[in-house]
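Try this one yourself first.
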């Protein structure tokens, strides 16, 4: 195998390894369980994790019944949604845009542990919205917060390096391959 082909194969394997590391570092290995209770006839709900839209959907409510039998003017509804996230410290922002009231928005931060689920209870009423973590404490672990910051930038660095290698390989192929397909002067027919 020619030396240039070995170098090309080696660079391709390095680029593939960097892409694998990037995928592993950005895998969503934890989950957020959103538990929403609301008092709206219809509304649009949006959830952002670190300013990236993670969930968007429409929610509806039904007429609330007094004593379980008598319908009232009040509405009530709920939503339970599992949202995959990366482990580490994240800011979670929830926005409710009801058709019959003003838009409401609130945010909180929490630490997500590898292969674990965090429950976020959201109560949205006409007079406001409130978010609260259920279960374990939401106090961030300093080492996990540092690792989340480091992994975010490491993944970007690996992606940049892999992109540079792929770009260099493409440039090399564009420059060298046409010469490989041209007939050499030795193979010219003799008259």
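Now uncover the answer:
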């Amino acid at each position: 195998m020619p030396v240039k082909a070995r170098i090309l194969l080696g660079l391709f394997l390095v680029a593939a390894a960097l892409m694998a590391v990037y995928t592993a570092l950005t895998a969503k290995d934890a989950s957020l369980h959103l538990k929403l209770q609301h008092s709206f006839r219809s509304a649009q709900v949006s959830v952002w994790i670190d300013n990236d839209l993670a969930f968007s959907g429409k929610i509806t409510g039904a007429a609330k019944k007094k004593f379980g039998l008598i319908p009232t003017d009040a509405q009530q509804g709920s939503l339970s949604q599992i949202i995959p996230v990366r482990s580490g410290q994240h800011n979670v922002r929830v926005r409710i845009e009801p058709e019959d009231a003003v838009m409401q928005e609130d945010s909180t931060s929490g630490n997500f542990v590898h292969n674990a689920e965090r429950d976020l209870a959201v109560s949205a009423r006409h007079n406001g919205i409130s978010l609260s973590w259920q279960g374990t404490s939401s106090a961030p672990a300093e080492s996990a917060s540092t690792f989340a910051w480091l992994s975010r930038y490491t993944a970007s660095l690996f992606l940049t390096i892999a992109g540079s290698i792929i770009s260099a390989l493409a440039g090399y192929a564009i420059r060298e391959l046409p010469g490989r397909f041209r007939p050499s002067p030795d193979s010219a027919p003799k008259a």
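Discussion: The longest strand covers residues 70-85. The longest helix spans residues 142-181.
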